[in-house]
Write a structure and sequence with these properties.
elongated; 15 strands; 6-stranded mixed β-sheet; about 210 residues; about 20% strand; UDP N-Acetylglucosamine Acyltransferase, domain 1; alpha/beta
Length: about 210
């Protein structure tokens, strides 16, 4: 019903609804059926681009800015060894849509390509960043605005650029280990509220206060 009303309204405005859908290969992050998002994580209009059902996993308490784009798979462009063109899934589109297409789908499933993205907890992704398929971003990481992330990002790292490169680690390796052990993002909401002031003291004080309580 909603779709029908939308089509009518767009027709009144002179917009071809079906054509508009065809030119977009993306979906809003919050609407992507293959994405799993942890509690309290929010985004301001991030987009997911996909051609497969590869998983996008995002942890808790992540901050994702406007126009962040997750490209979840390679769209089979790197599958052939001789060409950049995704030959198989383009030449056999009709066959793949048929009920008896198990033969073609099984071949396609054997093709190796980078798929899936995993984002840790407490990650901040800046405006306009592009996260490429196969990437794993660790807990507490910060991704600079307009960065193109093509490789894994360590826990509590700051990366930026195109391609994104390590700028610094926020804390010592020992403190990163301890923060991951504290893993405050798994606390109950009640505890986070009770301890809210402790998030504004120094990281050393925070670690000293809670690491010994593990």
């Amino acid at each position: 019903m909603t779709t029908t009303i939308r089509k009518i309204l767009w027709r009144i405005l002179g917009i071809d609804y079906n054509q508009t859908l065809k030119i977009h290969d993306y979906v809003f992050l919050k609407n992507d059926r293959y994405t799993k998002i942890g509690k309290k994580t929010y985004d301001n209009g991030a987009l997911v681009w996909r051609w497969t059902d590869a998983k996008l996993k995002i942890g808790k308490y992540c901050s994702i800015a406007n126009n962040v784009r997750f490209i979840v798979d390679e769209g089979y462009h790197t599958a052939p060894n001789v060409t950049n063109f995704p030959l198989f899934n383009n030449l056999f589109k009709e066959e793949l849509l048929r009920k008896d297409s198990s033969k073609y789908k099984s071949i396609l499933n054997q093709v190796k390509q980078k798929e899936g993205i995993t984002i840790g907890n407490d990650v901040w992704i800046g405006m306009g960043a592009l996260i490429m398929p196969g990437v794993i971003i660790g807990n507490g990481a910060t991704i600079g605005a307009n960065s193109v992330v093509t490789k894994d990002v360590p826990d509590y790292a700051v990366v930026a650029g195109s391609p994104a490169k390590l700028i610094k680690l926020k804390y010592s390796e020992e403190n990163i280990y301890k923060l991951n052990r504290i893993c405050w993002w798994h606390w109950e909401d009640r505890l986070v509220k009770e301890r809210i002031e402790d998030f504004y003291i120094s990281s050393d004080e925070f670690i000293n206060k809670y690491y010994n309580k593990i």
